[in-house]
Amino acid sequence: MTTQPHSTSAPAGPRRMIAVSSGKGGVGKSTVTVNLAVAMARAGLRVGIVDADIYGPSIPGMLGIPGNAPPAMGPDRRVIPSEAHGVRVISMAMLTDDDQPSILRGPMVTKYLRMFVSQVAWGELDVLLLDLPPGTGDIQLTLAQSFPLTGAVVVSTPQDVSLKIARRGLRMMEQVQVPILGVIENMSGFTCPSCGEVSHIFHQGGGAAIATELGVPFLGKVPLDPAIVDSGDEGIPLIVGHPDSAAAQAYCRIAAALAGGPAETGGVALPFDWTVATGIGKPAPVPATGGAQDIPCAMDIDAAGLEILWVDGESRIIPARDLRIACPCAACRDEVTGARLLDPEMVSLAVAPTRIWSVGNYAIGMAFSDGHASGIYTFKTLRQMQGAETEDV
To answer: Where does ATP bind (predicted)?
Structure first.
């Protein structure tokens, strides 16, 4: 059942933005995303899905949304998402014909991704799920850098090769400080409808084991069910077509866990865009809560440099010139060797940050008075820089 597109006026960001990822293809990640979304919607939450798999979009078909129906544009020039089964959706499949490939280079992919999240009239949402393509490439990094994700869910089968690749995806999310909300083990055993015997086609227990090994939650396992395939092909999610099945019940339990999980990572409110001269956009300070995370609680700038207070209560100052010389962008550092390309003697003693903005959950970008504005400074790097001399950074 497909309803009319949801119309709304002013944008209102989702309370929780959750990425659903996988290390490799073929693990059923999009099917999991659709059923989790519908389960949340049936529980009373306002839910949206961004089909971030630009090259292989599949979400609209699984929800029964026609792929050849381009979304409408609202009076505020924002795209109105389609809606089915209580879930609002935007996807590249709505902008292209079924047999037309999306032949796009990296910058255009980035443009579409940002448009799908920030230029769509989502209205009030409790949860926005981002269905990522497999791997750890441009799309994953773009979303991690552009938006303050609540966290990521990693989907894997119990198969050893799938779990090994899923581990890489987990590590990638950790490096950009996206909290890991948990691991889902999909295709976890098949129950014979005649005799009731369970066959573990892709082994068993691997998802729980990797979650334990990496110290992240294990959200649950979804058994193999032929009805899942039929439901996806028919555009009727399993949650709707077979709500009493074991797989549907597993989806409901996982959806409940995600909907009620922690929504805050601590530190200053994200995102922010701070114009130093006027103070506009400066992130409001929050109390230090203890712990050893590389997350800032407050930032300030004076003649001495950039002062950062961290969640564990530590606070030191990084001189502005040190920040400029330590810029990690490709113009200032060799991308392969890491060797410095910028001559420190060419950096003015009076150089200073003019604008500071958040990059995802894990870094800040800085523009300087000499016109340079392409460096991304991770929180970990800033923590290590504090107190360091210029020649050591």
So the answer is: 23-30
